[in-house]
Amino acid sequence: MSLPPDSIAVILPAYNEEVTVAGVIRAFHAALPQAAIYVIDNNSKDATARLAADTLASLGCKGRVIPELRQGKGNAVRRAFHEVNADVYLMVDADLTYPANRAMDLIQPVIDGRADMVVGDRLSGGHYARENKRPLHGFGNGLVVTMINKFFGSQLRDTMSGYRAFSRTFVKNYAVLVEGFQLEIDVTLHALDKRFRILELPVEYVDRPAGSASKLNTLTDGARVIFAILQILRYYKPLAFFTAVALASMLLGLVAAIPVFNDWIQYRYIYHVPLAILAAALEIVGALMLSVGLMLDSIAHQRRTDYELRLLAQS
């Protein structure tokens, strides 16, 4: 399938990227001269917006700089998805870490109708492991991939990549509800939950150039990512989530009841009355959590059905 020249949009979320943004624009304009490039200036305090606008103008490149004052990559991408209309969207970080010469490889499966989301996989080729100077980030990536694959029965390799191509159907039916760097996890789980076709392609990865500083904080952002996974599992897999909570509560209730059982067996009288009350309360909470999980699972199933019917109506 061939696309008209303005049907490819390159989305570049950028926050304080004056060192790299011009180079990224030039690289992706050379790789995709027919594409429109949109730089989402995420409240930068440096010359990112000016350099991006000057570079786009000097290249005669379609697109523009779109301001988004609310901080966070999720907010920046949300602004782009709301304002930009295209048939294929290519999202990439504006830090010169992803290869522009692989852009066509990522968007071609979307153009051909073989995938709804194509992910540039940094991990399979070992590039991220060699270039990444933060060991905890590599550990965090592995933990996230393992958790997602376990809960969704998938076999994904890189769920945190910032280099992705999307179809128009995917973008216009995806509600961006996260604000920060949890975006990659959220978009991955949305694709899995709604059964969009995901394709991963190994790509090269290089660390940021000298003078360009990462905005990520290993511990803070890692905690946010784990919290985001738990929150999203609560929405997408409520039965599993609340069953786990129910089992934990019931197990604690049984532990609290051990002295109570001992009292009854030995004396036919309960001396540990507070523990008896606590054990009963924990068992009741567990039963309630299981009931909540069953109800929310039915609601989630109905929402998936409604989503599928909406996609069918659009097609």
Discrete helix count: 11
Cα-to-Cα separation, first versus last residue: 17 Å
Helix amount: 40-55%
Low-confidence stretches: none
Element-level helix/strand string: EHEHEHEHEHHEHHEHHH
Radius of gyration: 24 Å
Per DSSP E runs of 2 or more residues, the count of β-strands stands at 7
The main β sheet shows up as: 7 strands, mixed
Percent strand equals 5-15%
Assign the structural class, choosing from mainly alpha, mainly beta, alpha/beta, alpha+beta, or little secondary structure. Answer: alpha/beta
Q: Strand order, main sheet: write it out.
A: 3-2-1-4-6-5-7
Query: Mean of residue pLDDT?
Result: 89
The shape is elongated
